Model the fold of this input.
Amino acid sequence: MARAVVTVPARAKRGEIVEIKTLAQHAMETGFRRTQTGELIPRDIIRSFSCTYNGVEVCRVELHPAIAANPLIAFTTVATESGTLQFQWVGDNGYTVTEIAPIKVE
Amino acid sequence: MTTRRQFLIVAAALAAPTAAKAQLDPNLAANRKAAFQEARRRIVGDTLVRPGRVKLTLPPLIDNGNSVPLSVTVQSPMTEADHVKAIHVLTEKNPLPDVVSVRLSPRAGRATFSTRVRLADTQTVTAIAQMSDGSFWSDGAEVVVTLSACLEEGLI
Done:
């Protein structure tokens, strides 16, 4: 049920800086909250995010419990060549989501 | 047979640890401050951190600390020779000082990043940028939080 949404412009001019927005569906349980009976709810968060452009790393993000639920990550990249952008989220309890977005550079 | 006196002693003994646990750590503020300094030292070491070049944008008044839009922009040409290596965001009063660490490459084109964060209290948020030449630059933003994230921590 893990889901992620990625916004990448379908076309871009060579050398243009394009904005990328990513949204992953995740509760980001902090590990500091308690249930009504006082038991600590164990931590369950996304630990890291990475984006590669045709195999070259653009950015890598370390997330901590202070990131809000359904983490939004927005950044930029230079449109160098046509190809694919690959996004990966890795988290606690074996959470892994990979998303691919094509980009056409002219 | 249990007398009333015995029952009261047992009940008090059972209740005592729970009551102690429910109380706030009296050194909370000092501990958080120490944790913040420790996290900052882990990032910058003994290097001097200069103000400037970094722009941290946060709304000054926050109704709900559970989801606060945060963005960081660093002035940098983002070339192979001169680029931003990493952007770190730290808080002073959250249960954990670290918020996010972003490692960038020159392929990012622009040193800009945005996300949504949780803030536990009215506090100063700090952004530190690490450049490829090894220098550190920072910016801070004062925020007022009316509804805190992690109320369970007993922050007032």
